[in-house]
């Protein structure tokens, strides 16, 4: 049971405040979990803004160095990867998917350039035909083809399609781990499911482990194998996704779960009206 | 490249006027290579002749043809301006990109020095350099000094652009797509850095030309080398305004003012055209 | 002076407070000889009744934000009203937004107010919050400055905000607090009509729940009508009395929220509801094929036909009219045959 | 308050650094140049006769002591700082024996008066015109005045000054084109003298205003045209707030923040324009003093004026930096 990725008491803090009020903001405190190399899974980190989930993603990708603890990918300390050669080797196995597809693709660069560059660098392909073939193969995985992408710019396609192209690009070096930070929050609801279902096929058909980072409990419940809930840098609860999200044991995760509005008017209205009563009660009690 | 020129000429009136003005003055200046008399020769022609068929713009009290004097003067003034512009762009780009991309301590140190230099009065320092160097002062040295005093405002603008580019998601995406640093800089970032570099370059060129005119008008430069400022300097020395040789003063002033206007119009119109936002809207973004 | 607690959504008061008739608003742009026309709002007709929260749902590039900008009379070039009208009915007097600018300006904030999406920075960053209340509402209240201040403080207290917040600057407040303040500002004159453009989109789910409760609380107390715009169908389920679905610049379905969720009439609505994951249910959710329409050259006939599972030949040539059906309206040639979610 | 204190500390540190680097730069320039100032002055003196070798040697000795050229490089540097801090640059050779410092102190008020007045006018007028042109984009009058102001922007101070001098000196001789005040008037706060000072200051001030106004117009107009689409302005329009209030409180007030920083950053250049304009109109300020010093080869005067102008500009920049927190609450309240 070799570890694909191991976080060992990882922490990250930032200096904040002026000369006189120097203090440390703890973005991530004592985070530990392990992803199994021979059991691909969708591991989800759930949390609201400021919970430290994005900082965690950046540390796993090696874009930020933890201030405490260590992150090992296939036994190698990610923060120690310095040389260009080692970085490339690491990036061949660990690829990111970004939140806003319109920000992730340079509006002045054609989309196919990203696919070709990945194929050229990580697969060492040289001839144009080989490179285009690799790009087309990756696009097939996500239900697209090179014809739809060649020479196009990001503003010509929808958020959902761009995100699928981003997944295709990440698949080219056949990575072991994909770190997706809020991959669907900028995608329309009607297209969101195509991306989320895609993660499942990547796990099952290509054996890729996916770290899925989101604030949306419903998609987390629908797609994840395991989940950890973070709040202001702390891990509140962790475990099997259905168990933890189905009926959480900690107060914060229960509040989070109860705030999720079900797509059914009767139930949703009841949640809002209950909150309204609590608001009015608090006012009258404060008022008297 | 020509399609851009055609678009600009057709749709942007500022560019049209600017292009025509700068173009004619540039040709006028380039003509000095075919001048019948050497630039520095004096007392060749009958002095103080008003504009006539023979001497289109008249002659000076020092027996020089005003027309060819201005042509040579504009050429020298522009070469001075271009030298200052290029040298200061190199420093501004270097400082702007290093502090923008590296960030952290390097950024803090460079920007502190940058802000310090901005607060220094340029002309007194330049005058001090001239005073100290006296006759050793050659125009390339003056150009170097002006360049070293003229880059800091622009370095801060370039830094703000590079800093924002470094933190944009498509930069990280490019790195993970295997693009090398030069590829990212040239292919991904250049279209965003170009407008600010170009616009500050044109402003610097205008500032440098103004500086050259100002210094040589006071006689603080190699006055034997014909420059626009030099002409006005000699016109003042010979009391041209008082003794009614108006053409000696008016034509160089008109020429340099037209040059300023032309360059300025070019700067505004081209900057608006290559700005990524307007380029995107043309692509239908 | 406050209206007593209004009964639950009184659907009886049928007289509309807003009538939008065959409204067309297009983006017309011309850059260096490249001219483009985007038909963002393409012939929309709808009415909104008193004391009702009308939800407008639509995805990105559906034209829903252009629609409410046009309704609010807040359009700048290149967006332009091509035809149709927007008429409000305040105190028995009809106000035509585009033919009576003076009356419209006078009605702003007195009868019609607005809550913006980016409420994080709708308050002037260099002035204290109290100035915003003064600029927006003072002229409508006809009170002395001190009485006005007391009225504002009472209003804020009633919605659970500490009046001391009036003395602070926007950058000193959290995002959630600024959003609650924006709602306080939009309701201080007790307007009959409030336009809320994605007010809870940028908020965390816990704060979102509280803000929705706040909006519902104030609406019930004032009996005002609200247009509530968001792409998130679950928010519509929670707060909207009636929902209008916008697709490619056109209203494709409209009706009471409960009926719509139980028995959607239009295939697009059915899909929007079906694609929402629920906690406790992992049945496979499927996405719409194809991509959202490009409003610069929209598909012919019914604009949903390229992605519609029920599309027939007629759908590609003729655009279906919006016709009454059950308690709402729908624009689809095969409206009855939509499978329940 | 933490943010405000941090801001103040940073600005004061910057101020000290500017003085330190500026004065050191002036020292370096004078001491690293290949030309020996003493030889230069001696050759200047001796070409009026007086070539007796002994007196020339004595002169050389006196001059090198006067110019602070004794001792090692570092000792000279410390001595230089000593003199700067005491405000003692030795006597001026061209108007011997009056000390350089009293010449500077005599000329400084003229420059400060001229500069403060013209900078204020060009800053306020340029910003107002630019804001109006940015907010009311279709107004023809604003467009025309904008075009005129922008046409003047690239033209240097000397040319603008010369054109004014020619028009008011020869074509329509209404205004005095030289000097700071009527020669025969007794300097003091009498009505006649002050009136004459104002009249004599008109052309130099007008030159500086015409040269300065263009840059403020352009930057303010582009700032305003961006701010007009900001959320808080659109929201105010939706709120039916009067366009006068929107223009002044929502648009202009936010646009002024960067313009105030811009004012501080521009002082270095504006001072240069004043030097030229003073010389052109023979205005008795520090600028004319500097140029006359250069013409007469008066080493200590030139060094003194340059150093003091560096200090003066640094002080002005620091003062403006102090104003910034007053109008930006985000800096004042951390």
From TrEMBL, chain A:
Domain named ABC transporter: residues: 5-257
Gene3D superfamilies: P-loop containing nucleotide triphosphate hydrolases
Key words of the record: ATP-binding, Nucleotide-binding
Pfam short name (any one): ABC_tran
Coiled-coil blocks: none
This protein's record includes keyword Electron transport: no
Keyword Secreted: no
InterPro entries in the record: AAA+_ATPase (IPR003593), ABC_transporter-like_ATP-bd (IPR003439), ABC_transporter-like_CS (IPR017871), P-loop_NTPase (IPR027417)
Domain of life from the UniProt record: Bacteria
GO MF terms held by the record: ATP binding; ATP hydrolysis activity
Signal sequence region: none
PANTHER family the UniProt entry points to: ABC-TYPE DIPEPTIDE/OLIGOPEPTIDE TRANSPORT SYSTEM, ATPASE COMPONENT, ABC-TYPE DIPEPTIDE_OLIGOPEPTIDE TRANSPORT SYSTEM, ATPASE COMPONENT
Family indicated by similarity: Belongs to the ABC transporter superfamily.
Protein name: Peptide/nickel transport system ATP-binding protein
Organism name: Kaistia soli DSM 19436
Automatic annotation (TrEMBL), chain B:
Record carries keyword Transcription regulation: no
BP term (GO), one: transmembrane transport
Alphabetized UniProt keyword annotations: Membrane, Transmembrane, Transmembrane helix, Transport
InterPro entries according to UniProt: MetI-like (IPR000515), MetI-like_sf (IPR035906)
Domain ABC transmembrane type-1: 74-269
GO cellular component terms attached to this protein's record: plasma membrane
Major location category of this protein: membrane
Transmembrane segments: 12-35, 80-104, 116-133, 139-158, 192-210, 245-270
Pfam family, one: BPD_transp_1
Keyword Transmembrane: yes
Topology relative to the membrane: Multi-pass membrane protein
Location of this chain's protein in the cell: Cell membrane
PANTHER family: OLIGO/DIPEPTIDE TRANSPORT, PERMEASE PROTEIN (DPPC-2), OLIGO_DIPEPTIDE TRANSPORT, PERMEASE PROTEIN (DPPC-2)
Protein family membership: Belongs to the binding-protein-dependent transport system permease family.
Protein name: Peptide/nickel transport system permease protein
Originating species: Kaistia soli DSM 19436
UniProtKB/TrEMBL annotation, chain C:
Keywords assigned by UniProt, alphabetized: ATP-binding, Nucleotide-binding, Transport
GO molecular function: ATP binding; ATP hydrolysis activity
InterPro entries noted in UniProt: AAA+_ATPase, ABC_transporter-like_ATP-bd, ABC_transporter-like_CS, Oligopep_ABC_C, P-loop_NTPase
Lineage: superkingdom: Bacteria
Domain ABC transporter: 18-273
Pfam families named among the record's database cross-references: ABC_tran, oligo_HPY
Gene3D superfamilies attached to this UniProt entry: P-loop containing nucleotide triphosphate hydrolases
Location in the cell: Cell inner membrane
GO CC annotations, alphabetized: plasma membrane
SMART domains per the UniProt record, alphabetical: AAA (SM00382)
BP-aspect Gene Ontology terms: peptide transport
Topology class, membrane: Peripheral membrane protein
Matching CDD domains: ABC_NikE_OppD_transporters
Entry's family note: Belongs to the ABC transporter superfamily.
The name this protein goes by in its record: Peptide/nickel transport system ATP-binding protein
Species of the source: Kaistia soli DSM 19436
UniProtKB/TrEMBL annotation, chain D:
Domain of life: Bacteria
Membrane topology: Multi-pass membrane protein
Compartment(s) of residence: Cell membrane
Record field: transmembrane: 12-32, 110-136, 148-172, 192-218, 260-281, 301-324
GO cellular component, one term: plasma membrane
Domain named ABC transmembrane type-1: residues: 108-324
Record-linked Pfam families: BPD_transp_1 (PF00528)
Gene Ontology biological process terms in this record: transmembrane transport
Gene3D superfamilies (UniProt xref): MetI-like
Keywords: Cell membrane, Membrane, Transmembrane, Transmembrane helix, Transport
Family: Belongs to the binding-protein-dependent transport system permease family.
Protein name as catalogued: Peptide/nickel transport system permease protein
Organism of derivation: Kaistia soli DSM 19436
Source lineage: Bacteria, Pseudomonadati, Pseudomonadota, Alphaproteobacteria, Hyphomicrobiales
């Amino acid at each position: 049971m070799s570890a694909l990725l191991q976080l060992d008491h990882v922490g990250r803090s930032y200096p904040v405040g002026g000369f006189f009020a120097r203090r440390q903001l703890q973005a991530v405190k004592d985070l530990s979990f392990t992803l199994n190399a021979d059991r691909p899974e969708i591991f989800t980190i759930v949390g609201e803004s400021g919970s430290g989930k994005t900082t965690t993603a950046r540390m796993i990708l090696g874009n930020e160095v933890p201030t405490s603890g260590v992150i090992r990918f296939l036994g190698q300390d990610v923060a120690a990867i310095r040389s260009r050669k080692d970085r490339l080797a690491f990036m061949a196995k660990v690829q990111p998917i970004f939140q806003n597809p319109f920000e992730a693709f340079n509006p002045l660069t054609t989309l196919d350039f990203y696919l070709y560059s990945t194929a050229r660098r990580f697969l060492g392909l040289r001839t144009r035909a080989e490179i285009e073939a690799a790009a087309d193969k990756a696009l097939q995985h996500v239900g697209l083809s090179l014809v739809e992408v060649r020479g196009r710019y990001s503003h010509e396609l929808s958020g959902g399609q761009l995100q699928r192209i981003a997944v295709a690009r990440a698949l080219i070096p056949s990575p072991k781990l994909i770190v997706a930070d809020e991959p669907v929050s900028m995608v329309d609801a009607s297209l969101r499911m195509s991306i989320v279902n895609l993660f499942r096929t990547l796990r099952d058909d290509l054996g890729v482990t996916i770290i899925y980072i989101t604030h949306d409990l419903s998609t987390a419940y629908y797609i994840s194998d395991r989940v950890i809930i973070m709040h202001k840098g702390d891990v509140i609860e962790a475990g099997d996704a259905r168990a933890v999200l189905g009926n959480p044991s900690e107060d914060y995760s229960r509040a989070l779960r109860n705030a999720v509005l079900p797509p059914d008017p009767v139930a949703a209205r009841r949640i809002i009206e209950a909150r309204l009563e609590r608001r009015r009660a608090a006012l009258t009690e404060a008022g008297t | 490249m020509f399609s851009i020129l055609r678009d600009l000429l057709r749709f942007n009136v500022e560019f049209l006027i600017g292009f025509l003005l700068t173009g004619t003055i540039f040709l006028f200046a380039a003509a000095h290579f075919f001048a019948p008399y050497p630039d520095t020769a004096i007392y060749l022609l009958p002095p103080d002749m008003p504009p006539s068929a023979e001497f289109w713009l008249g002659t000076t009290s020092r027996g020089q043809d005003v027309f060819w004097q201005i042509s040579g003067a504009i050429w020298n003034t522009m070469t001075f301006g271009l030298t200052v512009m290029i040298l200061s762009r190199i420093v501004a780009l270097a400082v702007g990109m290093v502090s923008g991309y590296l960030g952290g301590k390097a950024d803090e140190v460079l920007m502190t020095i940058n802000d310090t230099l901005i607060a220094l009065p340029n002309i007194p320092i330049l005058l001090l350099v001239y005073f100290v160097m006296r006759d050793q002062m050659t125009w390339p040295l003056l150009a170097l000094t002006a360049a070293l005093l003229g880059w800091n405002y622009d370095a801060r603008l370039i830094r703000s652009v590079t800093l924002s580019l470094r933190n944009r998601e498509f930069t990280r995406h490019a790195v993970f797509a295997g693009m090398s640093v030069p590829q990212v800089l040239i292919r991904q970032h250049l279209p965003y850095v170009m407008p600010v570099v170009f616009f500050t370059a044109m402003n610097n060129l205008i500032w440098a030309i103004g500086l050259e005119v100002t210094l040589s008008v006071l006689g603080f430069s190699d006055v034997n080398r014909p420059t626009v400022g030099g002409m006005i300097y000699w016109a003042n020395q010979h009391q041209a305004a008082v003794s009614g040789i108006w053409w000696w003063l008016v034509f160089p002033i008109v020429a340099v003012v037209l040059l300023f206007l032309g360059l300025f119009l070019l700067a505004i119109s081209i900057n608006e055209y290559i700005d990524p936002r307007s380029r995107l809207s043309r692509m239908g973004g | 002076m406050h209206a007593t607690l209004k009964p639950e959504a009184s659907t009886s008061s049928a007289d509309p407070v807003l009538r939008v008739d065959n409204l067309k608003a297009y983006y017309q742009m011309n850059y260096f000889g490249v001219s483009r026309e985007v038909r963002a709002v393409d012939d929309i007709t709808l009415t909104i009744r008193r004391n009702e929260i009308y939800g407008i749902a639509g995805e990105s590039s559906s034209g829903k934000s252009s629609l409410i900008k046009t309704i609010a009379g807040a359009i700048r070039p290149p967006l332009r009203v091509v035809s149709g009208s927007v008429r409000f009915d305040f105190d028995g007097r009809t106000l035509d937004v585009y033919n009576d600018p003076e009356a419209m300006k006078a009605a702003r904030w007195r009868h019609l107010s607005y809550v913006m999406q980016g409420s994080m920075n709708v308050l002037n960053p260099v002035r204290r919050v109290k100035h915003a209340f003064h600029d927006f509402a003072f002229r409508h209240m006809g009170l002395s400055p001190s009485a006005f201040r007391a009225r504002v403080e009472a209003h804020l207290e009633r919605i659970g905000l500490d009046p001391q917040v009036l003395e602070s600057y926007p950058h000193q407040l959290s995002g959630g607090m600024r959003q609650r303040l924006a709602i306080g500002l939009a309701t201080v004159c007790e307007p009959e009509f409030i336009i809320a453009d994605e007010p809870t989109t940028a908020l965390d789910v816990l704060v979102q729940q509280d803000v929705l409760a706040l909006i519902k609380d104030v609406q019930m107390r004032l009996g005002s009508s609200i247009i509530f715009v968001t792409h998130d169908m679950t928010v519509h389920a929670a707060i909207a009395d009636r929902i209008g679905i916008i697709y490619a610049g056109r209203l494709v379905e409209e009706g009471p929220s409960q009926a719509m969720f139980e028995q959607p009439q239009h295939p697009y609505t059915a899909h929007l509801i079906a694609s929402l994951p629920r906690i406790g249910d992992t049945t496979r959710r499927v996405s719409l094929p194809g991509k959202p329409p490009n409003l610069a050259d929209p598909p012919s006939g019914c604009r949903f036909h390229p992605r519609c599972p029920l599309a027939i030949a007629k759908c590609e040539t003729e655009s279906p009219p919006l016709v009454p059906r059950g308690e709402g309206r729908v624009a689809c040639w095969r409206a009855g045959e939509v499978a329940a979610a | 308050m933490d943010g405000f204190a941090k801001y103040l500390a940073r600005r004061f540190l910057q101020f000290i650094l500017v003085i330190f680097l500026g004065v050191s730069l002036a020292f370096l320039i004078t001491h690293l140049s290949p030309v020996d100032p003493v030889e230069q002055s001696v050759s200047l003196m001796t070409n009026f006769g007086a070539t007796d070798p002994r007196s020339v040697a004595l002169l050389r000795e006196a001059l090198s002591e006067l110019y602070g050229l004794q001792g090692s490089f570092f000792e000279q540097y410390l001595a230089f700082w000593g003199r700067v801090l005491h405000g003692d640059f030795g006597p001026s050779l061209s108007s011997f024996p009056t000390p350089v410092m009293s010449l500077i102190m005599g000329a400084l008020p003229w420059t400060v008066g001229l500069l403060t007045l013209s900078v204020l006018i060009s800053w306020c007028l340029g910003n107002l015109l630019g804001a109006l042109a940015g907010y009311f984009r279709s107004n023809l009058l604003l467009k025309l005045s904008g075009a005129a102001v922008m046409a003047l922007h690239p033209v240097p101070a000397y040319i603008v000054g010369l054109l004014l001098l020619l028009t008011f000196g020869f074509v329509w001789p209404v205004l005095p084109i030289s000097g700071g005040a009527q020669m025969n008037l007794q300097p003091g706060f009498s009505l006649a003298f002050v009136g004459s000072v104002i009249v004599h200051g008109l052309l130099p001030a007008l030159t500086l205003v015409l040269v300065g106004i263009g840059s403020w117009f352009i930057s303010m107009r582009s700032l305003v045209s961006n701010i007009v689409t900001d959320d808080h302005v659109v929201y105010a329009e939706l709120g039916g707030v009067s366009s006068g209030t929107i223009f002044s409180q929502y648009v202009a007030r936010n646009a002024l923040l960067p313009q105030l920083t811009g004012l501080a950053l521009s002082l270095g250049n504006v001072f240069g324009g004043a030097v030229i304009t003073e010389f052109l109109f023979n205005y008795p300020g520090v600028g004319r003093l500097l140029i006359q010093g250069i013409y007469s080869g008066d080493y200590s005067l030139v060094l003194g004026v340059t150093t003091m102008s560096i200090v003066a500009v640094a002080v002005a920049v620091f003062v403006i930096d102090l104003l910034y927190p007053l109008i930006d609450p985000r800096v004042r309240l951390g």
